[in-house]
Amino acid sequence: MTDKKKAVSAVGPIWEGIYSEGKALNRYPFDQVVSFIYRNYSRAKPRAETKILEIGCGAGNNLWFAAREGFTVAGVDGSPSAIEFARKRFAEEGLEGDLRVADFIHLPFADNTFDFVIDRAALTCSGTSAARKTIAEVRRVLIPDGKFFFNPYSDHHSSCVAGKPGQDDLTVDIRGGTLVDIGPLRFYGKRDILDMFRDGWRVLSLRHIEIVEELEPLYNCHAEWILIAQKVVNVLQGVQD
User: May I ask the CATH class of domain 3-153+181-210+225-234?
Assistant: First the structure.
């Protein structure tokens, strides 16, 4: 693996530019994240003892929801502007959260810390090599049996065929679909995703979601994956039934 390939990480100037201009500063959580948390947290454990990390937390909208619901939250993003916005919002509303500027491939947290880790279409901005490193880091910081919500874009997406092949499995120069002007993206097929979670994980759920606009523009397809994987410490646990 070359040094050039290793450098294709999710942290870059494109999203800092977007956030610094006041764009994409979402205020409310994504419904799939809300569902994931409520379906999976233990009712036998106080919410404050349930720790949630989001990688690529952006403006902190998902963590804002989780903190309001009493969970202990942390988030990392490569954009100083996004983290500044999130910290200010938390402070204004009296919420607590450990929000940091950091690269996904070097998560600044101890082993076995979090019950859940969330990626809501952030890691899909990384090439394959950086994604593998990040997923290994996610596994490291999860507690045994902790769960990872992984939500990348699918290779069925209209923007996938509207770009050009780039290094490290990225699609670059995207000129169509709904994902224009946000930089290179990694679009995943089913086999790609399952290969990422072959070792040390048990895949609990893998859903493919397509939303097709039938009027204008004609047949514009937004497609994404939602994978829920559980960290396993016993190799035999990871064997699918």
Answer: alpha beta
